Amino acid sequence: MRRFWPWVRLGAIAVTACVFLFPFFWMVSNALRRDREVFAVPPRLLPTEFQWGNFVQAWEYLPFGQFFLNSFIVAGSITAIVLVVSSLGGYAFARLHFAGRGPLFLVYLGTLMVPQAVIVIPLFLMMSWIGWLDTYQGLIVPMAFSSFGTFLMRQFFLSVPQELEDAAMIDGAAHWRILLTIFLPLALPALGLLALFTFTGQWNAFLWPLVAVNGPEHATLPLGLTLFQGQQGTQWNYMMAGATISMAPGLALTILLHRTIFKGIAVGSGFGGR
Amino acid sequence: MASRRRRGDATTAALFLAPGLLGLTLFLLLPLAASLALSFTNWQVMGETSFIGLANYRRLFTADPVFWGVLATTLAYTAEYLVLNIVLALAMAVWISSLPWGRTLFRLVFFLPTFTPLVGVALVWLLMLSPGGVIEWGFAGLGLTVPNIITDPRLALQAIVLVSLWSHFGYNMLLFGAALEAIPATYLDAAAIDGAGAWARFWKIKLPLISPSLFFGTVLTAITSLQTFDQVYALTRGGPGSSTTTLGYAIYNQGFVVYRLGYASSIAWVLFAVIMALTALQLHLQRRWVHYDA
Amino acid sequence: MRSVLRLACAALLTIACAATARAEVKLTWFMWSGSEPEVVAWKHVAELVHEKYPDITVEFQTTSFPDYWTKLPVLAASGKLPDIISLQSLRAPGFAQLMEPLDARIAADKFDIGAFEPSIIKGLQRGGKQYALPYDFGPLVLYYNTELFAKAGLPEPRPGWTEEAFMKAARALTKDGTYGFAVSEPDAFIAFARSKGASYLSDKGDLDLTNAGLKKAFADYVALVTKEKVAPLFPASGTQSSSVANGRFTAGNVAMYVDGPWQLLNIKKKANFRVGVAPVPVRSAGSITITAGSGFGISATSRNKDAAWKAVQVMTGPEAEKYLAEAGRAFSARKAFQENWFATAAQDVTGAREAINAALATAEPFVTTPNWSVVSALFLQYAPLAYAGSETPEKVLETIQTLATQ
């Protein structure tokens, strides 16, 4: 009995996993059926005829190509800014000595607690005054500054041996060169993790695009999906096609890079955290 | 040499920190202060604005017919979701770490929804939970007549909990799983030799050893669940009635549907106060149960 | 030498003239839409302006109907209002403040406003000033699925049909996952209430949802879902109940629902059965429906008001009206083109002419309050509580009244 027990546990979890994955299956299955089969009684697991054209129609009906591009531009730009700003800031906190470093770092940590919902109204007003509503820069710039990346890079840079830095110092290298030639190459795994978590986080972000965007022109994918909901309350097959499109990149990244992601979460430095 | 380097450091530090500091000041600290200031005005998008002192807060606490309900909904949601998330994540982490095969595979399966847009996830669940949907049919097939979870105001909040759990418990599961795997086998072996059963080993050894991860997961999950918005927007828009209106949704609704920006800001500060209070409480309580030295 | 100079001057003048003539005006126009055929129709209307005035281009921007009204204030706040604003009569009290009064221009151009239906001209006024020219108008009517009626062996509804006949049909049509009727609010409910003689406004024109008559009417309306069970329950997912009802109707699993003639284009596109139209049933106060309509006006902040005025005249002009009527997008606000709607768009719809004419005979304009957007949103959020049976209809109306007027 003892020997079988682990395998029973394995079988049980396999069943649980299948149940858990059902929403994904249901999404794709509904994305591929005719509208009138969505609420068929009794429900059919698979469409009678696979309507691959639904994806094309969803794509045409609302500009999902544009949404996709917008999401990519916004999430990509924010990630790029975060990487640069965090490397510079992290280096300063980890390796430079200056008056007020401790208190300033506490301020940085404190900002992690500020919920987005609290600042979204003033941000909206700021953006409306400078005419940045419904623009890429309005979606990107206000969201590109979080102290989290700086905090993470500081932790990493603290672990770099002092000798490496000293040797470069004797050669007379300036800090920016030390950062560029010694620290950043060492930090590639950390930077990669930061990029991955920032990118997916921004890809999925909803509140700010909802507030800062007026129409389909600059809408990101999650926002585009709800535009669909508003216009086509009942075209569930198209909506599920849209949901599938919006989830595909996140799912692909998770499957391809799961080892990296798991390692990132394991170091416990607070990536995301829901 | 050393002092010269220090002075050079200060200049470099100023340069290196400038972009981040500027960004944080402009897009975080300034809006934070502005939101407090706004909460003392009757700011609307169309119409005159004036300072009205504490009137927004007075209305919120004494006159608004739904505010206390919204606050209660938010706290009830957070409490329920937090407990379920931590228990489920821990249980699954323990279960998976005990498997003879496929640990990474199953971790991946339960983590899959985490990196997908919550709005998309919520729409899929909306389809399944709608009247006439597959879940209602499933219950009927089991001979159970249950009220529809999404149209019944007493149950609708459970739909939000369910969707949130499905999409995000995987994160904490991984966090706890990693902590479990980091426990040296010698500790557990020693305990086993001393005659401790699996149950005792879990409570006496594993749990204390992973308590820092548990604490970390609890704090972050609490902060984010107090702000819950995406699921509510996509699933119920705060309804039926105000049964699923969380503070986060109320801020959006007052701010960007009704355009009472001043009033919405006062709700935002209530949310901020709740988050700060809860985090302080957790930091205070951690001394009793979190063990960092092991 | 002199002739060369003269020639050069002439050439310069020509170029200068050409340059000023080509000073093109680009106007932005913001409009709601609910489907691709609608977008096509509106883009065609924008094109008509360009044909008439080649130096004016109208850029069409769109979003869904509910979002339109939440985005408009944002655009106003950020100084990005379009040159041409679309205005629905129900929202005129709340949104006219963003727009330019047209009276001076109408008088100066001796524009013939008498060609339009007087009730909708009035509906787009605020404080006695005209803020938009109408393109459509119409009474809320009852759409029905002729095939489901035939299958159930029921006579199709005709003008003058009664509440009893409606209930009998609704009960007979409710079977096998199909429902006889779909409720939606607030508009369709207001028509229901008016037919029962109940009012939603006080004598002074303020919102009054808590009077005994309206409470009784709402209780009766809710009973269609809770007691009679002839109408399905929808989740409160933020979608307009009328668009959910529309979707269930066109999918063929709801046999009747109430909406305006502006939906005909969408309904015909999606439904694969013959559609019928009838007036709302005769209830205790008669068959009283409400009329609403929409139009186009100029934003108060537009920098091209003269060009926008030209464009608005074309967009509500005879050619545009004829096109919109024939496409089924608009029951024309110009009396002259209502026939085109009957003859073309509604030719394969049973009973359209009789129904619209009968409805118009007893219809009244849909008068609203300035915060009607909020009232409407509150109805969508709180009415499901009554349908689900978790709060009394009376309590729901009280909540909406309190939240709307606080």
In short:
The complex is a heterotrimer of chains A (274), B (294) and C (406). Helices cover 71% and strands 0% of the residues of chain A.
Q: What is the quaternary state of this protein?
A: heterotrimer
Q: Note the gap between the termini of chain C.
A: 82 Å
Helix content of chain C: 40-55%
- Sequence of secondary-structure elements of chain C: HEHEHEHHHEEEEHHEHHHEHEEHHHHEHH
Give me the CATH architecture of chain A, please: Orthogonal Bundle
The CATH class of the largest domain in chain C is identified as Alpha Beta
The chain-level structural class of chain C is: alpha/beta
Structure class of chain A: mainly alpha
Shape descriptor of chain A: globular
Distance between the termini of chain A: 39 Å
Element-level helix/strand string of chain A? HHHHHHHHHHHHHH
Shape of chain C: globular
CATH H-level superfamily title of the largest domain in chain C:
Periplasmic binding protein-like II
**CATH evolutionary superfamily of chain A:** MetI-like
* Mean pLDDT across every amino acid position of chain A: 87
Whole-number tally of structural domains of chain C: 2
CATH topology title of chain A = MetI-like fold
Total individual domains of chain A: 1
CATH class of chain A: Mainly Alpha
Proportion in β-strands of chain A: under 5%
Major sheet size, sense and barrel closure of chain A = none
Please describe the structure with a list of short key phrases separated by commas or semicolons.
heterotrimer; A: 274 residues; mainly alpha; disordered C terminus; B: 294 residues; MetI-like fold; 13 helices
Provide structural commentary:
The complex is a heterotrimer of chains A (274), B (294) and C (406). Helices cover 71% and strands 0% of the residues of chain A. Chain A is mostly helical and 274 residues long. Chain A has one domain (62-266): MetI-like fold (Orthogonal Bundle), CATH 1.10.3720. In chain A, helix 1 crosses helix 13 (236-256), helix 3 packs across helix 7 and helix 12 packs antiparallel against helix 13. The radius of gyration of chain A is 24 Å and the shape is globular. Chain B has 294 residues and is mainly alpha-helical. In chain B, 73% of the residues lie in helices and 0% in strands. Chain B has 13 helices and no strands. The longest helix of chain B has 37 residues, at 2-38. Chain C is of the alpha/beta class. In chain C, helix 14 (318-327) packs parallel to helix 15 (338-345). The longest helix of chain C is centred in the first third of the chain and has 20 residues, at 2-21.
